[in-house]
Every structure is written in C-alpha cells, then in structure tokens.
Amino acid sequence: MELLIKKIEENLMEAFEKAGYDKKYARVVLSNRPDLCEYQCNGAMAAAKEYKKRPLDIAEDVLSKMNTDLFEKAEVCNPGFINLNISQDALDEYVNLIYQDEKLGIRKIGNKKTVVDYGGANVAKPLHVGHLRSAVIGEAIVRLRRFMGDQVIGDAHLGDWGLQIGLIITELKERQPDLPYFDPKFTGEYPSQAPFTIQELSEIYPTANVKSKNDEEYLERARQAILDLQGGNKGYHAIWQHIINLSIEDLKKNYSNLNVAFTVWGKESDAQPLIPEMVEYLKTNGYAHYSEGALVVDVAKESDTKEVPPCMILKSNGASLYDTTDLATIIDRRRKYDPDRIIYVVDKRQELYFERVFRCARKTKMVEDKTDLTFLGFGTVNGKDGKPFKTRDGGVMQLSDLIGMVNDAVLAKMMENKQVPEEEARETSKVIGLAALKYGDLSNQASKDYVFDLDRFTSFEGNSGPYILYTIVRIKSILEKYKETTGKGITAKITSTQASGEKELKLILSRFNDMMEQAYLDLAPHKICAYIYELSNAFNKFYHDTKILGCQDEQAKESYITLLDLTKKVLEQSIDVLGFEAPDRM
Asked: Could you tell me the pLDDT band of residue 339, with boundaries at 50, 70 and 90?
C-alpha cells in the first residue's frame, strides 16, 4: 500500500514540474510545527539557488499548479515553506484502506536472506544482565525484518570453544580423575549421562575460574586442555558434548522467559572443521603472513585515522582465536545460507574488533560483494550511579534475578489496586514485567547506554511498557462492552465526526507503514517504541475527550469503535514485533 506521505509528495512533484522546476525539490516531511501544519515542503529554499529566484516566488508558483483536492489547507509561508493539512475525506479514505488490509497497509519491502547473530551466551555460564540487550534487540531485529518480508535466520552463536571449557575439564579432572574421559587407554563408549548436573556445572566453572586467577600452573593446564580438545581428544570431546547439551537445555528455558527463540543454536565450534581449509587458502593466496610467530592478515588502510591491528589467524603455538572462528563462521554461513546480509548484535565496545574481521573477510574474498556485513553495537545497562548495573553487593546480576525483580515490582503495583485476584495477578505480572523490561530497553537507541530505572520501567503511566499495555487493555475493554451491549460486530467505516483529538489519532495511524519501513531500514526498534507511545497518548486523549459508548449518534459511535479497533490492531502488531504481548486485563 502506498505511503500517505509519498502520495502527498507525488502531488507536489507534479506541481513542481508544471511550474517549471525539477521535481527533486518536492520532498515532503512531517511538520515539526504541528500547530502550524501537518506536512511541509521546504524545496523552494533549495531550488532558489539553482533557479536564481526568491524561495517565496517559487513556492507561490508551485502552489498555483497544485491539485488541492487532497488538502483542507495548502498555503505558502515566509521565506518559502509550503504548509499542508490533509483533508478529512482523504485521511478517512486512507485509514479505511489500512483497516481493510490484512497487513495494515504494510508493504513487504524486505526480500533479503538475512542472518542475525545475537544472544552470544557462553555455555556453562548463567545468563547475566550483560546478555539482556543482545537478546532483546536481536529478537526485535529478527521479528522486524521477518515482518517486513526478509527470510531471517536468528543464530544464537554460543561461545563453546573458549577457555571456560578448558577450565571445566581441568576442574572435573581434579575432582573425578577416575572418570573414563581422562583414561587415555579407554576404548569403549563414553556414558550418555553427564557426570554433572547443570547446577553442579554452574558451580564448577566459577570455582575453576577463581583458581586460574591465582594458580598459573592450573591456568596452563586449562589452556592445554583446550588445545587437546581442538586437537581431537575423544574424552574431552565427550565432556564438551555433555556441557553443550546441558547448557542449551538450560539456555532455552532462560531465553523463553524473554520470549526469545533462535532459529538455529549455532556454536563457535561449528566452524572449527573449516579452519584448516581456511588457513591453507589464506596462505596459498598470499593474504596471510607470519609476524612474530603468529599468522596474521593485515587490514589497515592508508585512510585510517587510528591504528587498526591485523587479524590474527593463528597464535604462535598454532591455536585459533576469536578472529579465526568468526571468519570461519562467515564462510560456514555463506555455504549454508548464502545470505544477502549478516547482522551482528554485539556490545558496541567490540566495534574495532568486528571492523577488522569484516575487512579481512572482504580483502580475502570470503564473502561476495553482495553480502552486507553489519555491526549493530549496543550500549550498556547502567545503574542510577551511571555505572554498569550490579547487584546490591556489587556482583554481576543474573538475568533470571533481574526478570524476577521486575515481575515482583509489577505484582506489587497490581496488588495495590487489587482489581484482579492474586493468582491471576501473578501470571499477568509476568506478561507486564516482560513488556516493562523489553520496552525499557528497546525504547532507547541501541547504541546508547541507559539507566535501568525499575520504578520508571514498571510504571503504569508515562513512557513505559505497562502504559502501552494498559492502553491496549483499555481498548479491548471498550470493544468488549460494545459487543455485549449492542450485540453487533465491527463493520462500520471510519468517518469524520470532528471530535476532539480524532484527526490527530488518524494521522498517527496513517504513518504506521512509513514508520515500520524506517525502523526496518535503520535497524531501529526504538522508532517503533516512540511511535506506539505517541499513538497511545493520542488514543488516551481522544478517549478522555470523547463519549464513545455513550455517544447518541449511532453512526459516529460505530465509526469510533472501528477507529479503536484499528488502533488496537496497530498497537498489537507493533508490540508483537518488539517481542511482547498484552494481557486481557490489568
């Protein structure tokens, strides 16, 4: 469905050409002064230089050639603005088209095969607050791109090949040296049952990590264990597989609490078989060379204003690194999915690292020119002191504890009102808590740090997830009462009644498709949040100023109900893309 702003722009383009000016100057934007007009064209100012005429004269020429049927106001203001207000009839026609369209006017402009690398959890470690943004932003990007037409693969890309595996193997060997995994002469089948539970595993790693910081010999044994694992040690591989199986099972439960579902549970280790072939390719084609014993690829450019270190492919002892794994993963994804785009949702502090990896992949032709490699860096979640969010005793907060804290805060507020039974309130608080957490995060531009403010995030008023949900629940309640009292369905068209706030609500609804396209193109879930906050405010103003169910004019009442139903559908579709839902009552 054509964007309304483009429809207006086409009108202006025709007028510019009829007046003898280039249509490129006919760009229309939303007015930043809604008290003066709804839309604005500022092209006369830009055209003045080319045509050596006053902007005011150009704007007057264009206005004289315009078809003004689309507008209730079209006027020129100094020094050459063309100010426009769309007509009620044209607006009604447009919002009715949105309502009748099963896609709510959305053009499926996406046609890309896209891989989104997000989550990035490490196996054998519990999720903590540092994993929140990657999961929440990544899931929103996956849903948004899928909604707009892309074929999307969401990849968890688990860290399963790092030092933590070596530490666990080393600690397990100290505790249970008689296990068959550590017997080099063992030739039978290794046990199918892991020699530890997920609870025990979550204790083994921290213990081993502390030891490694105070015992250099212990740390060296852990490093050797990783080399042995990478070298094909069958016993260590069996332990590693136990760790993977238990960790993924536990991670799936934790991510489901965030309503996050990956398409594939990819791992660093998936690319390991490709590394020897990749290393040989880099050597044979002259891309890689040895520097101080390490195999590297230079990626610095003459235009760089800061130092860009080379990509290190192999350490001097022959071990692979993150650079190696990420490059091999690009090859693996190219072969499996042939993606048009790979989006990495990662802490913004890793930007230089990914810049190096992307440059290396391009320089060595590991990706085709058509494949876009995108770094979407996110900021940190901070406490009110401006520092990374911690527990009260200064430790790293586990994600499950953070979710529980938000749910408890929502429940406490719900019980203050006591509008629903406690058992129902407990279940509903989880739905609202998820909205509070996700909206609180996503309403910030991804690259920005933000302060985790529990009171603000869980407030039922203001710019918060609960406020958005409360708006949806309020609309649901009105629609339900309408059906109960009239026995009617929703069949009417949206018309103009001149009610206070009615046109503003329609104008915001008319921008839904345009907003979604911009959010898609800019990888910007925060634009969806800003939109639904504006839409919720407009609805609530309209609701407070207008008798809806009590309206005596049946035609007007039916129009109001249809307008409310459209508002609900747009809000529900938006929060679905963001990754949460609304309860039936609050």
From this structure: very high
Q: In Å, what is the CA distance from 318 to each residue of 100, 212, 324, 568?
A: 63, 22, 11, 59
DSSP 431-454: HHHHHHHHHHHHTS-TTS-EE--H
578 touches 525 (CB < 8 A): yes
CB of 499 within 8 A of CB of 542? yes
Structure tokens at 266: 């990819």
Give the whole-angstrom CA distance, residue 392 versus residue 387: 13
Whole-model pTM over 0.90: yes
- Using CA of residue 380, residue 147, residue 150, residue 522, what is the dihedral sign? negative
Boundaries of every domain in the chain: 4-86, 113-157+264-381, 163-252
Q: What is the DSSP string of 57-71?
A: HHHHHHHHH--GGGE
Q: What is the pLDDT of residues 513-530, one digit of tens each?
A: 999 999 999 999 999 999
Question: What is the fold, at CATH topology level, of the domain defined by 113-157+264-381?
Answer: Rossmann fold (3.40.50)
Closest to 372 (Cα-Cα) out of 429, 415, 427, 333: 333
Query: In 511-553, where does DSSP find H-type helix?
Result: 512-522, 525-545
Q: What is the SS3 assignment for 341?
A: strand
Q: Taking a C-beta distance cutoff of 8 angstroms, is the pair 460, 467 a contact?
A: yes
4-86 is a CATH 3.30.1360.70 domain: yes
Please report, for the chain, how many H helices and E strands are present, in that order.
20, 13
pLDDT in tens, 116-144: 999 999 999 889 999 999 999 999 999 99
